[in-house]
Amino acid sequence: MRKGESTRERLLDIAEAGVLSKGFGATSIDEIIAEAGMTKSGFFYHFKDKNELARALLERHLDTETRILDDLFGRASELHDDPLHAFLIGLKLLSEMLGDMPNGHPGCLVATICYAERMFDAQVRELNRNGVLSWRARFLATLEEIAERYPPRDDVDLADVADMVSNTVEGGIVMSKAVGEPKVLAQQVLLLRSYIRLLFAPGPH
User: How far apart are CA 150 and CA 156, in angstroms?
Assistant: First the structure.
C-alpha cells in the first residue's frame, strides 16, 4: 500500500471508530486530524468534506460486508450441496463469527447513517439504500432457491424473510449494546436460523 493510500485508510479507521462510538455529528474533522497527527490541508487532500468522508466510510463498510458474506456463505455452499442446509450452515458460521467478538460488535455504519440521514447528501443516502437492498437481493435469491425444493410451511413473502437477516443483525447489535451482553447478537442469529429451518422443514403441510 502506498503512503497516500495508507494515510487515507488511517483516516478512515479513526473516523469509523469515532462515528460508531458517538455518531457522525459528534465526530469532528478536528479530532480526526488530531488523532492522525496531520494538518487540515492533509485531511482535505483526501476528503473535500464530511459527506465525501461518509461516502468513503460507507463504501468501505459495504465492501467489507460483501467480502465477509461471500466468504461465510461460500464456505457453507462448499460444505453442503443442498441450498437449505448450506444456508443453515452459513447462518451458523455467521453466528459464530459474531460471537467471537469479545467486546461485541462495534456497530453498523448503515444503521448510523439511517439514524441521522438528514446530515448526508443524496448520494450518501442512495448508497446506503443500495447497500440495504443488496442484502435483500442476496438472501432473497438464496431463499427462492430453497423454496423451489422446500415449499415454505407458512404463507410468507420471501423478500420479507430476506429482510429478516438484516433486521436480526441490526437489531441484535442494538440489543447487545443496550444490555451490555455481546453474545445476544450471536444468539439472535441462531434464533433466525431456527425459524428458517422450521419454515422450510420438509414434510406434510
Answer: 13
Q: What are phi and psi of 48, to 5 degrees?
A: -75, -25
DSSP character for 121? -
CA-wise closest residue to 107 among 165, 23, 167: 23
Question: Which amino acid belongs to residue 160?
Answer: D
Please state the length of the chain. Answer: 205
Q: Which three cell numbers stand for residue 114?
A: 439511517
Closest CA relative to residue 185, chosen from 121, 97, 125: 97
State how far the Cα of 155 lies from the Cα of 120, in Å rounded to an integer: 38
Give per-residue pLDDT as tens, 56-105. Answer: 999 999 999 999 999 999 999 999 999 999 999 999 999 999 998 877 77
What domains does the chain contain, in order, with CATH numbers?
1-48 (1.10.10.60), 49-199 (1.10.357.10)
Q: CA 110, CA 194: separation in Å to the nearest integer?
A: 26
How many CA atoms within 13 Å lie on the side-chain side of 68?
14
Residue in the block written with cell 415454505: 152
Q: Rounded distance, CA 89 to CA 115, Å?
A: 32
Residue 106 has a pLDDT of 80
**Per-residue pLDDT tens digits for 149-174:** 999 999 999 999 999 999 999 999 98
- For 91, phi and psi rounded to 5 degrees? -65, -35
